Amino acid sequence: MRHRGDWTASKIGAYCLVGDGAHAKIPRQESGVMYLTSKNFKPDGLDLSKIDYISTHDFERHFRKGSKALTMPEPSDVLVSIIGSLGEPYVVKPSDRFGLSSSVAIIRPRQDMLAPEYLYYWMKGSAFQSAVYGTKGGVAQSYLSLEMIRSLPLRFPSLNVQRNIAEILSAYDRLMDNNNRRIKILEEIAHMMYREWFVNFRFPGHEKAKMVESEIGPIPNGWEASSVGSLATEIRNSTNPRDVDPDTPYVGLEHIPRKSIALLEWGSVGQVQSAKLRFNRGDILFGKIRPYFHKVVVAPIAGVCSSDAIVIVPKKAEFLPLVLCCVSSEDFVAQATQTSQGTKMPRANWDVLTRYPVPLAEASIFSRFNRAIRPMIDLINNLVFRNRNLRQTRDLLLPKLISGEVNVEQSETEAVAQGV
Q: What span, in angstroms and rounded, lies between the C-alpha atoms of 173 and 123?
């Protein structure tokens, strides 16, 4: 243990209890208590888009408070993924209730010396993350043992300064969380409107509309029987990454979230080698590998993407809201899954999906739908960029704060100046 000024340099094991989740093979089921593994831990929190569940009986059997094995996460514990995707931390909230697999470690700090929120940000910092990748074991799959975790570095100031540092950094995270909630609400409204107007035909004035037969089934009189292929096309503009500026945005399937049209993350072309596809701002990217993953986004930027995505371009600009809502709907993704080709790596077939039926509303209803949905798409993309700016600022500030390079008072002044 070393002291430098008001900062202490030590190891995780000196100030924290370290355990991990259940090593037992617990049966999964369709519902019940959430059971998290390392795949659920992402840089900006828990990814709950694909969750395993266990029974209440198994949860109470394997996860008991006060257990010497430290398998039950409690509020203010810091969890971290230790198999596969390493080093992604999460602070347990009082409202959380879940079990953990042994691919997740539980780190319980001595709160008389170490604030859990500070520990969380320390673990997100470059000093800790570099130590993780310098310590990890495994070839085919990386891992951290509990003893490895105990040996990882820890550096902290006084409790009061720790709390101030955590409060400054968490202000950025709270703003990002709020923006993400707004994105989710906008998505839900857009999908609800599409489902009500174009699937259930409960649009404004539907009470007076007469239903007539068409080639896609009964539709309101004055509407047109159409299809995805009539409204949009697939663009395959292949390019070699070496012929593109290395800073050009690159979107791989790993960047596309599940069940969200908001593209929050992307990389750069300089990170890839094989041929890719060009796309423009406003194009729709549909993950065709294992389409049941439900990866469909609208691009907020122009760039290149994986050839495992279908670049869908509306034939007219006014078709974007309808096409986006349609191809990101549960029904369309289910059709893509059902008609996909291949066993181990099923791929969606665009030629088949072009025949997916879409009722095209008469002009006044179609215009009203566009006036409602288009601003939502624009606001979602605006919130994406706000979050990227907030994340970049936080990530620039984090290492300076947890190293003592920047003092807390200076950081608070900068945060106020940015409206955080």
A: 15
pLDDT at residue 275, rounded to an integer: 85
Let me know: does 17 contact 70? Beta carbons within 8 Å. Answer: yes
Is residue 237 within 8 Å of residue 277, measured between CB atoms? yes
Q: Compute how many other C-beta atoms are within 10 angstroms of the C-beta atom of residue 202.
A: 11
Confidence check: pLDDT of 228 > 60: yes
- Which residues in 240-278 are b (16+ Cβ under 10 Å) and which e? ebeebeeebbbbbbebbbebbbbbbbbebbeebeeebbb
Alpha-helix residue ranges (DSSP H) falling in 288-362: 320-327, 330-338, 350-353
Under the banding of pLDDT at 50, 70 and 90, the label for residue 255 is very high
For residue 65, the SS3 value is coil
213 φ, ψ (degrees, to nearest 5): -75, 145
pLDDT digits (tens, 9 = 90+) for 24-38: 899 999 999 999 999
Residue among 213, 216, 187 at smallest CA distance from 199 = 216
CA count, 13 A, side-chain hemisphere, 372: 19
Q: Which are the contacts of 209, defined by CB distance < 8 A and separation ≥ 6?
A: 201, 203, 220, 221, 222
Interatomic CA distance for residues 74 and 54, integer angstroms: 18
* Whole-number Å distance between alpha carbons of 43 and 90: 9
Coil, strand or helix: which one is 153? strand
Contact 416, 201 (CB under 8 A): no
Residue length of the chain: 420
Dihedral sign, Cα of residue 213, residue 216, residue 222, residue 224 = negative
Whose CA is closest to 322, among 259, 231, 257, 225?
Answer: 231
pTM of the model: 0.85
Query: How far is residue 46 CA from its own chain's centroid?
Result: 8
Q: Is 108 helix (H, G, I), strand (E, B) or coil?
A: strand
Q: Name the CA radius of gyration of the chain, rounded.
A: 25
